[in-house]
Amino acid sequence: MFEPSPAPIPGIATLAGSNLTERMRVSNKKHLLWGARGDRRTAIVWLLRDTRRPNAPLLSGARVEMVTDLEDGVYTAEFRDTRQGRSLHSEFIFVDKGIVFLEVPEFDSPVSDVTVLIRAM
Known about the structure:
Elements: E1 18-19, E2 24-26, E3 31-37, E4 42-49, E5 63-67, E6 73-81, E7 86-95, E8 99-103, E9 113-120
Antiparallel strand pairs: 1-3, 2-5, 3-4, 4-9, 5-8, 6-7, 6-9
């Protein structure tokens, strides 16, 4: 059973603007993907390992492409363990013509549920 994250993610209250799921792709079909945009400077992605499928791979190395209406520029992408509520990794990404590319990095321990908070610098 899923239990909510014990630590709130800063900025999440502003993410009621636009469902991005229809405009997203993930490199492995054994991963589940959802996304939303708040204002034109904030978005969130949820990436889950689909444990209903046999041999579903870990999330590390998964690539996500999103077509958004985010403003062009430099953003931070903060990868968080959704179940534990802890930050796993942060990096800079670039949005160009509304296109966002993410690659899930290697983590110190296996993670099957990641939230990525994308915020303009």
